[in-house]
Design brief:
disordered N terminus; mainly beta; two-stranded antiparallel sheet; 53% strand; 97 residues
Length: 97
């Protein structure tokens, strides 16, 4: 992950360190609109080959580890969806059957 920090002056000359995440993205067309999804999903960084497939609207699959420590295969594609009441564009797993 890419992180950088800046110092921000606040009252009485005190300084605090504020972290900002430099988010890596890729550009693609989705439903006739240019979008810029994140290149990372969870702790997986999409390979160049995966980015090419996602950019063509294809599904991809890759190995992941659950929070419980169990391996699984993540399968999905870039979609428009709602997250925490906001419309977003990004990688989304397929619904489980």
């Amino acid at each position: 992950m890419y992180w950088f920090s800046i110092f921000e002056e606040i009252r009485k000359g005190e300084s605090i360190m504020v972290d900002f995440k430099d988010v890596e993205r890729f550009t693609m067309m989705l439903d006739g609109e240019e979008v810029k999804p994140k290149r990372m999903w969870s702790d997986h960084r999409f390979t160049d080959e995966e980015v090419e497939k996602l950019s063509r609207g294809e599904e991809i699959s890759f190995d992941m580890m659950s929070k419980a420590g169990k391996p699984y295969v993540a399968t999905g594609k870039v979609r428009k969806y709602e997250y925490n009441g906001r419309d977003v564009v990004g990688f989304k797993l397929n619904e489980r059957e």
